[in-house]
């Protein structure tokens, strides 16, 4: 079972790596954002904010290529917008998708996480008080 | 004493530069390092020439500075917070605030409050109390002993639940 892990550099990336350590899988492929002294991923996207919709959508073909090329059973993202884009590409290509909202969002799900609710197979929060019918709490990294 | 300040990579954070300046002025013999962020210029950089300042240290260099530091002062970014908690590094937080134009929203303030509540780590919303807290830091002090054990426990539980979920998806 191959899992494609996606996160932008920084806190999202640190959480993604910790999360990947917890998941039992045969193969893990990583996607991150470029230009940030980050050489641990196999594929890269340009960083953008979820408010910069056009910069994001312009990269959809690249996101689709990454998903097709790595051919994962499941795509997991901890954020932010570039993770949402790859998750969406996975939805288009009928892959299973899991959004784990950053532990930094303790009062409200991130905007990207709220968008992910529209198409992801499952959205997780790391705060029990943010659990709803659509958003589950299964634990946290801290 | 060695103190590592980090501002993250989002908008400019002049208040962190003021804190670096104030500590450098009070303790000229301390070794201060400031990772100011790629967009730091003008008043987002310290005026005092003492501290070692760079927009962004390469990962290996940052890790070495992190390990050498007696105290880390962070903008309450989750990458820094996780590294400090996991490695038992004493730290303080001054979150970026949306009202000051330092971030798009106040999630770093929420983060700082949550980490303070869960792990007893101090955070400051203003420069002055932060500077006082840095100056008052006792290098012999250690974070509560059970932090790493608690993190290990949380993750073990989370991992079991995650693997179960993935089987069911």
Automatic annotation (TrEMBL), chain A:
Pfam family, one: Alg14
Keyword tags: Membrane, Transmembrane, Transmembrane helix
Transmembrane segments: 73-93
One BP annotation, GO: dolichol-linked oligosaccharide biosynthetic process
Superkingdom, taxonomy of origin: Bacteria
InterPro entries associated with the record: Oligosacch_biosynth_Alg14
Record keyword Transmembrane present: yes
Protein name as it appears in the record: Oligosaccharide biosynthesis protein Alg14 like
Species the sequence originates in: Halomonas daqiaonensis
UniProtKB/TrEMBL annotation, chain B:
GO molecular function: hexosyltransferase activity
One protein family per Pfam: Glyco_tran_28_C
Keywords associated with the record: Transferase
Protein's UniProt keywords contain Transferase: yes
Residues in Glycosyl transferase family 28 C-terminal domain copies: 3-150
Keyword Transferase (UniProt): yes
InterPro entries per the UniProt record, alphabetical: Glyco_trans_28_C
Protein name: UDP-N-acetylglucosamine transferase subunit ALG13
Organism: Halomonas daqiaonensis
Lineage: Bacteria, Pseudomonadati, Pseudomonadota, Gammaproteobacteria, Oceanospirillales
